[in-house]
Amino acid sequence: MTGNTRGCVTPIASWGKRVIATLAFALLSACGDKAAEPLKSTSADTLGLPTGATLHYAVQDGQATAALTPSGTQLKLEADHTIAPNAGVRAKPIGQLGTHVILATDEYPSRPGGMSYCQAGHEQFLRVFSLTPQLHQTFQTKTASCIDNKELADPGIVWKPETATLEIHWLTETKTYKIDPNGTVH
Amino acid sequence: MAALLITSPRPNTVFTITDEPAWPAIRFQSNATLGAGQKLTWDWKLSWGTFTKQGKEIIATSNLWDAQSVLFQTLTGGVITNLGGQLTVRVTGPGGTNSVTVKIIGTNPTPAAILAFLAAQPDSRGFDAILQHESGMKHFNAQGDPIKSFDNGFGICQLTSPAPTYEQVWNWKLNIAGGLALFATKRASANAYLSQSGRAFTQDQLIREAVCRWNGGAYHTWNGKAWVRPTTILCDSQTGNIGWDLTNPANTGKTEAQLRARDKGTYGSPSSPHDWQYSGVCYADRILG
């Protein structure tokens, strides 16, 4: 669902309570929960991580970054031409594997075209980060795009920590990935 | 030998594309008289903004006729059809070189003609409403140039991405075809979304879903039995596509009037923090009623 992709999220013991700043990250309590996440306009967003660190997302001049504090490691996130100039960002936790592999989405307003095309649209990326030895990204895929006509079907993104399995339910197919303890995605 | 001149048209002549659109016959005439084996080279360049197209043609005499008092170069008939702007033609031959620049401008079709054209295109329902709402049904400005927006959107459909061709910028029918192609992707997405898991939907729901997606996001939600409009979106009926997510505690329990009074001052600065949102649902409601 473009601009309204659901993440089917398994509750995370401490992570969901560590959301920083003014963001309302309503972690969905169960797969299939239809509750919409409140939309806020933000120029940056921060996720609290299980280790006690925080992952800070920001966009400047069209370049999205994620920075881990307190380590200070900054990672340039690969977005694309579809995100709006001066876009805000909204991050959302999807799951974790151990304490050092993080799954999260980052979402941006679409770059609008003429005749209000995609003015209300969003571009969303799902990423897997490993925090060791330093913050790095091991996987990314675009999960929603008004510009590129990408969207997920119910139940969207499903993370099963017990089997370290990530399911992405597209309208036309479901893709399943296994994630190693070091963050490698197969 | 007399100096080679383009004798017609005069410099800065303005040629007008009809509202059909049909391109004017633009025929360049020189004063050349060629002997056997002599030739004229005609170079032409048509440009408008960053769009350019150019070509060259060589006309030579043959042994069957060795002279002609005037020679022509005609640039319509598929050469510059669908294009407009500044046209410069240069002729080079035994008498030297000469060039002339003329201008080609457009004529707006009537709204009725636009809608009639759209109605004849397959799967255009819904896009006609978008076009009427968004474009003002104009393709050319008062000077006869295609409308261009600040973000390089061109023509009646304000085509931006994918970047329009020169032809789509100047031919309003090709421009609409470009917009309709974009709408077709939304319609296809809408169809895939609504038909997931074998769910049933109506043609009206398909159109509403496609129009919503044009602006962004899905319109309908599945209530377990049918596709329905989400009850969690409240729209500002005085705007085109601004609404509120009623699951946001800041908005819950408030009326449209209360939310509008609170937020309308921030509509003009969407990058500042706010609790309203651009909503494809509100967009579709606004456009389709």
Q: What would you note in describing this structure?
A:
The complex is a heterodimer of chains A (186) and B (289). Chain A is 0% helix and 44% strand. Chain A has no helices and 12 strands. In chain A, strand 6 (90-97) and strand 7 form a beta hairpin. Chain A starts with 6 loop residues before the first strand and ends in an 8-residue tail after the last strand. Chain B is of the alpha+beta class. Chain B folds into 3 domains: 6-105, Immunoglobulin-like (Sandwich); 108-220, no CATH class; 230-283 and 285-289, no CATH class. Helices cover 26% and strands 23% of the residues of chain B. The radius of gyration of chain B is 27 Å and the shape is elongated. Chain B starts with 5 loop residues before the first strand and ends with a helix.
Question: Strands, helices and their partners?
Answer:
The complex is a heterodimer of chains A (186) and B (289).
Chain A: E1 7-8, E2 44-48, E3 54-60, E4 63-69, E5 74-77, E6 90-97, E7 101-109, E8 122-130, E9 136-145, E10 152-160, E11 165-170, E12 174-178
Parallel strand pairs in A: 1-10
Antiparallel strand pairs in A: 2-3, 3-4, 4-5, 6-7, 7-8, 8-9, 10-11, 11-12
Chain B: E1 6-8, E2 14-16, E3 27-30, E4 39-48, E5 51-60, E6 71-74, E7 85-93, E8 96-105, H1 111-119, H2 127-135, H3 166-170, H4 172-194, H5 203-215, E9 221-222, E10 227-228, E11 233-235, E12 242-245, H6 256-263, E13 276-278, H7 280-288
Parallel strand pairs in B: 2-8
Antiparallel strand pairs in B: 1-3, 3-6, 4-5, 4-7, 7-8, 9-10, 11-12, 12-13
Helix pairs in contact in B: 4-5, 5-7
Largest sheet of chain B: 5 strands, mixed
Distance between the termini of chain A: 25 Å
Report mean pLDDT of chain B, rounded to a whole number.
92
Number of domains of chain A: 1
* Low-pLDDT stretches of chain A: 1-42
Q: Which strand order does the major sheet of chain A show?
A: 1-10-11-12
**SS content category of chain B:** alpha+beta
Total of helices of chain B: 7
Major sheet of chain A: 4 strands, mixed
Residues in helix, % of chain A: under 10%
Estimated structural class of chain A? mainly beta
Radius of gyration of chain B: 27 Å
Quaternary structure annotation: heterodimer
- What is the mean pLDDT of chain A? 78
Count of alpha and pi helical runs of chain A = 0
Overall number of strands of chain A? 12
Q: How does the overall form of chain B come out from the CA principal axes? A: elongated
Helix content of chain B: 25-40%
What is the domain total for the residues of chain B? 3
